[in-house]
What we know:
The complex is a heterodimer of chains A (243) and B (443).
Chain A: E1 8-17, E2 20-30, E3 35-40, H1 46-54, E4 61-66, E5 69-70, H2 76-79, E6 84-87, H3 99-106, H4 115-125, H5 127-131, H6 142-154, E7 160-164, H7 172-189, E8 192-197, H8 200-206, E9 209-214, E10 217-223, H9 224-229, H10 231-238
Parallel strand pairs in A: 3-8, 3-9, 6-7, 7-8
Antiparallel strand pairs in A: 1-2, 1-4, 4-5, 9-10
Chain B: H1 2-30, E1 33-37, E2 45-49, H2 51-72, H3 90-150, H4 159-176, H5 180-202, H6 207-227, H7 229-232, E3 238-239, H8 258-261, H9 269-295, H10 297-307, H11 309-314, H12 319-345, E4 347-348, H13 355-368, H14 373-389, H15 394-411
Antiparallel strand pairs in B: 1-2, 3-4
Helix pairs in contact in B: 1-2, 3-9, 3-12, 3-13, 3-14, 4-5, 4-6, 4-12, 5-12, 9-10, 9-12, 10-12, 13-14
The complex binds adenosine-5'-triphosphate and magnesium ion.
Amino acid sequence: MSSAQPLLKVRGVETFYGKIQALKGIDMDIYEGEIVTIIGANGAGKSTLMMTVCGTPQARNGDVEYAGENITYKPTFEIMRTGIAQSPEGRRIFPRMTVLENLMMGAMVTDGSTYEEDLARVFKLFPRLKERQGQRGGTLSGGEQQMLAIARALMSRPRLLLLDEPSLGLAPIIVKQIFDAIKELNERDGLTVFLVEQNAYHALKLAHRGYVMVNGVITMSGTGSELLAREDVKAAYLEGGAH
Amino acid sequence: MKKQKDTLMVASLKDAVGGAVIALLMALVMVGMKVDVASGRGAELFIEDRWAAVAMAVAIVFVGRFVLNLFYWKKEDTEKPRLGSLLPSVSSFSGLGRFATPVLLALAVILPFLLMYWLGSRGSRQYIDLAILVLTYVMLGWGLNIVVGLAGLLDLGYVAFYAVGAYSYALLAHYFGFSFWLCLPLAGILAAFWGIILGFPVLRLRGDYLAIVTLAFGEIIRVVLLNWYEFTGGPDGLSGIPRPSFFGLEFTRGEGGFADFFGLKYSSIHRIIFLYYLILIMALVTNIVTNRLRRLPIGRAWEALREDEIACRSLGINTTNTKLTAFALGAMFGGFAGSFFATRQGFISPESFTFMESAVILAIVVLGGLGSQVGVVIASVVMIGGFEFFREFEEYRMLVFGLLMVVIMVWKPRGLISSRTPSIALSKNAKGISADLVQEGTG
Ligand SMILES: Nc1ncnc2c1ncn2[C@@H]1O[C@H](COP(=O)(O)OP(=O)(O)OP(=O)(O)O)[C@@H](O)[C@H]1O
Ligand SMILES: [Mg+2]
């Protein structure tokens, strides 16, 4: 993976919450067609990085470039119309709206001409959602909600999909389903994926490349298998064994 | 099977008794005692008791609930533990909502003639007037529903737009001699404009803070109207506001008037009936527009905004514009209703636009069930109709009103019609679970 220009290029990004500095100069590249994961302890700043790419909060210093365009200071809603879609931390589906309505919300940025096709595509990926399309989002199980959050993001036909902890609180079998779906999207449709994960073992197995973040700084990077093999990564994030 | 039937019987009986007790408590004061002026002995007040009517009301409730329980609500017979058990459950009400709409609509259309038939044109006048008032609040409720119910922006100053609409018409007519039909759209546009003006500073606010700022805004408008004596007439208000015409026909006696043109005998009731249909149409337009918008992207964005603003932004929705359109549209309908109010009254003053009005409109929306259109109608009829009917008990009115609010809120914390109707039907071959079957927990 080394086409000339990365799809997403992050350079020296520093993000603050008031006086607290959450990101202390992050460099990161994501190339078209890659799955890139970022792992790190709680509070390391992973979600903050993802949200900075989306423009809330905006970086105080540094640049975020997407497809050659500087998007650092664009408003969030405009960034999300350029081909980036996100399944945010905590899923944030619309609880009182039905599954189908949630998916429609995901397609808001499209012109609607591909709606049926996209709907069929996400239903094929997650048949559970098809069965439950009239059910209110808030009454879905945790796993179904996660599927819905990913499906909703896919409805905008993104080029780059941002996923924040899609495996959070899910049973191993559902985690596998979700990760299989990500893999399928990447291999079949060539979707580029930026994955934030606590589940380091699965994430590094799935990803082409990975970054390790500690306290707002990237401390290691490499291919997924390289990172998985490193003793210090094993010790810190894998507790010495496969999960 | 037999066993089940028995428990259903017992449960229904219990439920009916509970309902009857509540009916008894409410009817005791409201129906049972009527203050009247004694004829012949000067203007002495006395309380006439009507226990027969109370007994009747209680009996109707008892039998009605019993029968409904046995045959209509029988699906959910066993698990009805608390206070809620005394009253119909959510699903039975949403079932009611489905056929309530056409029935209510038909009733609204024939109401003036029904009243005239029963009470004659003299006797029906006060009731048609009351119906006009109720419809005005229905329209205001529907307008505010866009802001509060759909977009989830708690607006405590809605009366400001009602005032802007009323004063727009009154002032345009006063200074430029514009007619009602010209002023109606202008009033709507001006109110929408003020809606945007209010919208801008409060865009970043949520919940409590938004409520406080909108409340202040409502008061500012009223205070300005009160103090700008040269322009608005201050506390004296504006009078002589022209009445609307019917396609150029004035409702006047004699040559060229409405009655003359249609070969009718002149009667002042014609104008009242005309006003009734005018506000009915205006309210229906509000409803139709709202229902339409709900199915369009902007309407869905409002509802999504109510649920989760951050998620909205991450889906590429411009939350700023979404909020502003909600404010503007809600305000516009408030403005329309305001100019109707002005033309109906013929006189307006800041007195009519106090915070109490905002509170009543908000109460209608909340009691009706945020976002429910039928709920607003029911709540308006109950509240405004109730207000007028129990005018005799001036001092207890607020007490009963407050009690009613508490009862409704305990019974149905999400308002009368709490189940949200999805804005899209399922695709044809989906064998999914209908939203109606999957109730959310209340809380
Ligand atoms: N809105 C906020 N206001 C203030 N501080 C914040 C805010 N959001 C995050 N932080 C702080 O920024 C730091 C990074 O948080 P972030 O959510 O990015 O961590 P994370 O790596 O995603 O952790 P986790 O794995 O637990 O989700 C934390 O110290 C957190 O307390
Ligand atoms: Mg996080």
